[in-house]
Amino acid sequence: MAFRSWRRPTVVQGGTLRSPVGVLRIDEVAAIEPKEVSLVDARLAGFETVDAVLAGLPTEPGRRLYRIRFHLEGDDPRIALRTAAELDADDRGRIGRVGRSRAKRSVLVRIRPEVQGVPPRSATNAGRGRAGSVVVGEGGRLPDTLR
Hints:
single chain, 2 domains, four-stranded antiparallel beta sheet, 4 helices
C-alpha cells in the first residue's frame, strides 16, 4: 500500500513497476479524499498514523490524493538478463578498453542471441544502435558480471 499526491497518476491498475525489492504489480489506483485514509491503510503503508501519511504529501492546487494497492510479483528480470550474457575474452577486452575511456560516457555492448529480451535502457530506447544492444551506464560503468 502507498499513498501519493499527483496531478495525474503515474501508474495504472494492472501495470508493473520495477523497484529495489523486485517487480510490483499494481492492483488498484484510486483517487480518494484525505478522510478516506484509514489507520489500517496508513499502517500498511508504513506509517504510524493517518496524520503522518497526510503530512508527508504535497498539497498544492491541482493535486489529488491516490491510494495505490500493489503486491510483489517477482524478481527484477534485468538481473537474469545481466547474468545470462555470455561474453568471450575478446568481448571483455573491448568492453574494458572502452570502459576506461573518460571521453565515452556510454557504450553499446553486443548481447549474444541466446539472451532473450531487451533491457529497459536499450540502445533502441535511447535512440541509438539496434535492438539487442545494451547501453552501459554513465561513465562507462559495467554490470558487476562484466567487470
